[in-house]
Amino acid sequence: MFPIDFAYARARSLDEALDLLDEAAEAGQEAKLIAGGQSLLPMMKLRLAVPEVVIDIADLDELKRTGWTGSSHTIGALTTYRQLARQRYASRDGTPALVNGSAGLADEVPALGDALAVLADPQVRARGTVGGAVAHGDPAADLPAVLLALDAEVVIAARPGRHEHKPAPFDHIPRRPGPEPTVDRQTMLLDDFLQGIYATDLAEDEIITHVRFRKAGAGGSAYEKFPHPASHLPLAGVAVVVTFKSGPLTDADGRVTSLDDGSIAHAAIAVTGISPRPYRARAAEAVLKDAFPTADTLAAAAAQVARTPDGAELSLLGDQLASAPYRAHLAEVLTRRALSRAITRAGAASPIGGKP
Amino acid sequence: MPAARDVSVQLTVNGATRAATVPARTLLVHFLRDHLRLTGTHVGCDTTQCGACTVALDGVAVKSCTVLAAQADGHEVTTIEGLTSQPGTGQDASQDIGQDGGCGRLHAVQQAFQDEHALQCGYCTPGMVMAVRQLLADHPSPTEDEVRHALDGNICRCTGYHNIVAAALSAAKREG
User: Fold this and answer.
1) Average pLDDT, stretch A19-45?
2) Nearest-CA distance from A22 to chain B in Å?
3) Are the C-beta atoms of A99 and A89 separated by less than 8 Å?
4) Residue A1 lies in a domain
5) Architecture, CATH, for domain B6-82
6) Which of A5, A34, A82 minimises the CB distance to B5?
7) Strand partners, A80
8) Segments forming the whole domain that contains residue A197
């Protein structure tokens, strides 16, 4: 089993990749970018995708650059799941280093580590990329759920003036001209980027270069999934990032109050596998805002996971593998599990400990 | 470089440079089997699930049915054939003739599969061996749980997992 004939080119620069996309469009040919190819090639073999031109972007060094600032992480689109799971912080001399007390990203954001351990299988994780996971728009992808719970942003490169994306609310990296003045970069929220089943806001002549998210505050995170045993895709998957109130509040009279009372400042809950696109369960999140994390509260929040903030039921996917009500049930159970795991982890990580 | 339906690829396979011009749609597994006649790498499911086609690409286990030969251009591939040391290379010379009958010495993982009888029909074996090699490269002393988790991407239709897991644990002991 192999794909139908196509033309292949390996781009040596972002500029060349954008040129190749334009050339294909001018010739009226459907083009697809390939990086790891772990989603695209299976679809091409099944002839569900039949691109006439395949442009390999695996050599674009800019898309491999991963790093962090004081407030955020930037992950190169070509970073593989395996690389992300094994990434370790290092000092300038190459010795292991701790950043915010963590040895690496999967350690700092446990929900990422959870997802990267259960996503597909080891061989697929060695090839599949972060950019591909986002660009594919799969309704049952693991990683986008975690990124969504982290309020991640997608950095998109294109020729200037072609497309206007809804800008991310906090574009916290100062915008500098890139190495090529003919390439424009825009940053948008992943939540605005994902649109539906295999549908995203990425235009035919655009390339995802990076995914970014801010460092989490005091708290914990977790990802729980119920995988289909053959495909390993989540029949339902839930990522949560829980932030507790912390730090001193100083009022105008100089009185200092500790905010650290064990209540939740904010909980982000993202669900995948049960609807046309991974989504943020804002109704469930609202239940947890300012709440103390008791078992009853977590259960009350989880019960809202398949509802919109105005209480309506979300339209869910059902198929031969699992009905929509069954997937909704899984999502509720997984939300409870992910919340308690994240909260337990937050307690373990807290310097004062003792959080329930 | 404009896009082309035929692509020239040059890769290092089991230490030797191999070059060919192939249709762009050629999958790495077909390149290995049909062009290079390295038929130790098997095609099982064709859909990235069974792992029979597992090879090491730049030292890391991947499924060669889900990599284009063109993507592997300029890279290094090790197949199951490349795990066995070749006789007469000076490597393990004392072992060349004897238990292996002069055909080269089995890799520790291959030897463990033989010792533990970790195969029934043998179809999944090359992929299993390549996946276990990766596991031991990453985690030299895995637990049984870790072995089973690391073989998530490999299916044995004979369901002979018990001895496969035993072989992985035995190879870990041997190498450790």
Assistant:
1) 97
2) 12
3) yes
4) no
5) Roll (3.10)
6) A5
7) A129
8) 61-214
Closest CA to A345 of A112, A13, A182: A112
pLDDT digits (tens, 9 = 90+) for B53-102: 999 999 999 999 999 999 999 999 999 999 987 654 444 444 444 444 55
Residues A157 and A300 reside in one and the same domain: no
At residue A171, the pLDDT reads: 60
Pick the CATH number of B91-175 from 3.90.180.10, 1.10.3860.10, 1.10.150.120, 3.30.70.660: 1.10.150.120
- B137 interface with A at CB cutoff 8 Å: no
Centre a 10 Å sphere on the Cβ of residue B73 and count the other Cβ atoms it contains.
Answer: 17
pLDDT above 80: residue A9? yes
The region, left, alpha or beta by phi > 0 then psi within -120 to 50, assigned to residue A221 is beta
Residue A185: alpha-carbon gap to chain centroid? 19
Q: Write the pLDDT tens digit of every residue in A304-325.
A: 999 998 889 898 999 999 999 9
Q: From the list A12, A20, A126, which residue is nearest B62 (CB)?
A: A126
Question: Residue length, chain A?
Answer: 356
Put the strands of the sheet holding A219-227 in their side by side order.
A219-227, A234-244, A264-272, A279-280
Specify the pLDDT at position A22: 97
Q: Which of A7, A10, A41 sits opposite B66 (nearest CB)?
A: A41
Instruction: Record the tokens describing residue A275, joined without a space.
Output: 């609807």
The closest of A241, A242, A244 to A261, measured between CA atoms, is: A244
Q: Write out pLDDT tens, residues A44-103.
A: 999 999 999 999 999 999 999 988 887 889 999 999 999 999 988 888 888 888 877 788
Mean pLDDT on B128-135: 98
Domain count, chain A: 2
How confident is residue B109, by pLDDT bands cut at 50, 70 and 90?
Answer: very high
pLDDT above 50: residue A129? yes
For residue A28, the chain B residues in CB contact (below 8 A) are: none
State the pLDDT at residue B175: 76
Each domain of chain B, given as residue ranges in start order, spans 6-82, 91-175
CB proximity list for A123: less than 8 A, separation 6 or greater: B51, B54, B61, B62, B63, B131, B134, B153
Query: Which segments of chain B are extended strands (E)?
Result: 6-13, 16-23, 54-57, 60-63, 76-78
**A71 and A185 together in one domain:** yes
Q: What's the predicted TM-score (pTM) here?
A: 0.92
**With contacts defined as CB-CB under 8 Å, which chain A residues touch B47?**
1, 42, 45-46
**Between chains, do A38 and B48 touch, taking CB under 8 Å as contact?**
yes
Pair A193, A251 in one domain: no
